[in-house]
Amino acid sequence: MRSRGDRWSRGRPAPPTLTAAATRRSHSPAVPQLSLHTPIGDISVSEEDGAIVSVDWGWSSVQNESALLRRARAQLHAYFDGELAAFDLPLAPPGTAYQRRVWQALCGIPYGSTRSYLDLAHTAGGSPRSVGQANASNPIPLIIPCHRVVATSHLGGYSGGDGLATKRWLLAHEALAQPLLLPTPFAAA
What we know:
The protein is α+β, with helices and mostly antiparallel strands. It has helices at residues 67-80, 97-107, 117-124, 128-136, 164-177, and strands spanning 33-36, 43-48, 51-57, 115-116, 149-150.
């Protein structure tokens, strides 16, 4: 069921904190996984040890949902409905310490905004190229918003879905949904 009018559509909460994951884990069929249809194609969300560890493009042959995955599905539907500006899910992306720093910085990019690879290099350390490599390795796209990173002179790349067409769609979607996130000019008395 899609969530209507939840608290995320009215404000911009603090970005989620990524939990540390020491090494890249491989997902076995026993890992709870749930697939869903979205406007940018089918995606599959995986959970491990009570945290989201991946969002993959395509439909998984294994469907083993959990309460957390149902919550992720509801939030993803709300995001695509233009009702959710930030996800509230525990995340544990497997990667290096540097990659996790970059992904944490991605979570700080506000909905409907973009940052350059250079901006993120100043925030997370490294170079624009290393930020781009960490971005391309993001195991939780959409929820960790790597689509909000652009080059200083052009759109940059995108490795998810249909590539740049998917990135353009996501950025346009967030730009169109922005008015839904503005506070009401008059408070109820």
